[in-house]
Amino acid sequence: MEHQKAQTLHGNKVPSLSGPLPDLIAPDLTCYLSEVLMSTDRSLIWSRTTDYFRRCGFGDILYGYSPDSHGANLGSTEDCIVLSTLGPEIVTELANEGYFLESTTFHYALKTPGIAPFSMTCEECGFDADWRPSAAAADFFRRHGMLTGCSIGFPPERTRGRAVMTLLAPPDMSQACIDSVIKTRHNEILSVAAVAHRLLSSLPNPASGRTLTRRQREVLEWVAEGKTLADIALIMDIKVATVEKHLRLAREMLGVETTAHALIKAAFLNQVFVVGDIPREISPARST
């Protein structure tokens, strides 16, 4: 799990408004795109994306992607990518207690591409009109300023894999003000979110507990090329028993029973045929 300290616009405080839109320095979409589209650095892409949305008037940003999710099944939490400008303790509580599942716009965005402002009614999100979150979830959302903002859903690229991005308002900014920002910059917000999602979801996840070693990846890649164990041993100049060991360890790391399943899962997690080494998880110290 990665976290980034909130960048600020004026001193150490994001403008808090309940009426007019904040007077912000307009972000440059062309500069943003030229930088992130030419990068394979997850931290840089995330940093530029959060900075862009803050310049649009938003506060904290939260992004979650589960590569193995399908239908109502959100997949294994071990494989999820979660990026946030919120503190790690807040994100941990949100995930562990399942409070995100009590957000109507989260469920709407999970199934529907586009922007879902928090002003949407329960019925518009597919819930009963009298539906309410639990008292614990409502208190969590209130304590951490998650009552105003929007959720963004993305069109699925395949039968598995779902993502949602949430843009939260700065403190004391009303939902009406956020709705005005969305109306004014709808296509821009949607485009930046979609580009960020496509880039972030295509990179290996260093926070996953299932990171393969270079040798394990290499052996799986040769399997994908149709090579036998004997072929791989000859190509890599190692013993067949060593090839078998790398495959066994790869299966154990990925939590699967067969080599075929290991190859498919490694592909889902963007861990085969990648350039360079996959970075290991860095401690969640928040950086500027």
Would you write up a description of this structure?
This protein has 288 residues and is of the alpha+beta class. It has 2 domains: 200 residues, 2-Layer Sandwich (Beta-Lactamase), CATH 3.30.450.80; 55 residues, Orthogonal Bundle (Arc Repressor Mutant, subunit A). It is built from 10 helices and 6 strands, in the order E-H-H-E-E-H-H-E-H-E-E-H-H-H-H-H. Strands 1-3-2-6-5-4 form a 6-stranded mixed sheet, sandwiched between helices. Strand 5 and strand 6 form a beta hairpin. Helix 9 packs across helix 10. The N terminus and C terminus are likely disordered.
CATH architecture assignment name of the largest domain: 2-Layer Sandwich
CATH superfamily of the largest domain: Transcription factor LuxR-like, autoinducer-binding domain
- Mean pLDDT figure: 85
Q: Which series of helices and strands comes N to C?
A: EHHEEHHEHEEHHHHH
Rg on CA atoms, Å = 21 Å
Strands across the major sheet, in which order?
1-3-2-6-5-4
What number of domains? Answer: 2
Largest sheet, in brief, is:
6 strands, mixed
Poorly predicted regions are 1-21, 281-288
**Inertia-based shape:** elongated
Strand content: 5-15%
Helical fraction: 40-55%
How many E-type strands? 6
Number of helices: 10
First-last Cα distance: 16 Å
CATH fold annotation of the largest domain:
Beta-Lactamase
Give me the secondary-structure category.
alpha+beta
The CATH first-level class of the largest domain comes to Alpha Beta
